[in-house]
Amino acid sequence: KCEKDDNCANGGTCNTETGKCNCLTGTNGVNCKNIIGCDQLNCQQKVQRAYLMLQEKCQLVNAMPIISIFKKICHKKCEKDDNCANGGTCNTETGKCNCPTGTNGVNCKNIEGCDQLNCQTKSATCVFDVAGKMPT
């Protein structure tokens, strides 16, 4: 039973009247946790302890940028904090990294705000300042 949108996975929303999640197309099940088509994606046997997730993907549709979250990706689960970048911590129960504010993505490797830094040289690299929780 859901009480708020956060109780629904994969972008689902909570209908507080019924206590059930309204799942996005491509997901179903209790709290929208199942991603339809995962079994056909065929995660590599070499990637043990893998999980599948929906990842945001920006597309141009009629010259307008549209975010589509139906790209199915196979990822190796984290087993310890060292598997998560930029100060992220591993939730060994789910195998997913808990990313600190200012980072996101698989293993917390995406640093938010790097594009606003306007680095002028091709050799510049944007890194995440864990203590300051900001890109540098």
Characterization of this structure:
With 136 residues, this protein is mainly β. Helix content is 3%, strand content 36%. It is built from 1 helix and 12 strands. It has one helix at residues 38-41, and strands at 13-15, 20-22, 27-28, 34-35, 50-61, 64-76, 89-91, 96-98, 103-104, 110-111, 128-129, 134-135. The strands form 6 sheets. It has a two-stranded antiparallel sheet. A hairpin with a 4-residue loop joins strand 11 (128-129) and strand 12 (134-135). 15% of the residues are buried.
Average of pLDDT: 71
SSE topology string: EEEEHEEEEEEEE
Strand content: 35-45%
Report the sheet with the most strands, covering strand number, pairing sense and barrel closure: 2 strands, antiparallel
Principal-axes shape call: elongated
Overall SS class: mainly beta
Number of strands: 12
Low-pLDDT parts are 41-52, 56-61, 63-70
Distance between the termini: 42 Å
Across the major sheet, the strand order is 1-2
Number of helices: 1
Portion in helices: under 10%
Radius of gyration: 17 Å
Domain EGF-like: 1-33, 75-109
Keywords: Disulfide bond, EGF-like domain
InterPro entries: EGF
Protein name: EGF-like domain-containing protein
Secondary structure topology:
Blueprint: E1 13-15, E2 20-22, E3 27-28, E4 34-35, H1 38-41, E5 50-61, E6 64-76, E7 89-91, E8 96-98, E9 103-104, E10 110-111, E11 128-129, E12 134-135
Antiparallel strand pairs: 1-2, 3-4, 5-6, 7-8, 9-10, 11-12
Kindly summarize this structure in a few lines.
The protein has one helix spanning 38-41; strands spanning 13-15, 20-22, 27-28, 34-35, 50-61, 64-76, 89-91, 96-98, 103-104, 110-111, 128-129, 134-135.
